[in-house]
Structure formats: C-alpha cells, structure tokens
Amino acid sequence: MNRLRGLAKLFSQSVPQLRNNMRHKALRSWTAVQDTYFSTKDVFESHKVVFTVGTSIASVATAWIGDFL
C-alpha cells in the first residue's frame, strides 16, 4: 500500500518538481559519499603509524606461523 502511495505522489508532481527533487537527492547522496570518504581518509591518516606497525606485526606473525607449517 505504501508503494502505491509513493507512486501516486510521484505521478502527481510536475516534471520540474521531479527534476528538482532528483537533483536535491543526488546532491545529498554525493555529499554523504564525500563526507564518508573524507572521514575515512582522516582516520587512516591520523592512525598511519598504528596501521603501519600493525601490518608489520601481522607480516612477521604470518611468516613465523609459516615456518612451523
């Protein structure tokens, strides 16, 4: 039933209204993608040393385990 209401609302809008709504939704989506990207980038840059050390420890542990197998 909700889907039908959504379709009725969609068809009741004019083409310029639909275009503006789509443009607004696309802009909000693009802004969300950018926010997520920059947030993730900030986390990785601020923890670069931790990730580097963690990767090194994981590499050594993998090699050490491989020697025993």
Instruction: Tell me the span between the first and last alpha carbons.
Output: 60 Å
The whole-angstrom Rg is 25 Å
Number of helices in the DSSP assignment: 3
Mean pLDDT over the full residue set: 81
Q: What is the count of β-strands? A: 0
Rough outline = elongated
Tell me the series of helices and strands, N- to C-terminal. HHH
What report would you give on this structure?
The chain is mainly alpha-helical and 69 residues long. 93% of the residues lie in helices and 0% in strands. It has 3 helices and no strands. The longest helix has 32 residues, at 15-46. The model has no long low-confidence stretch (mean pLDDT 81).
Summarize the structure.
The protein is mainly α and 69 residues long. It contains three helices and no strands. It starts with a helix and ends with a helix.
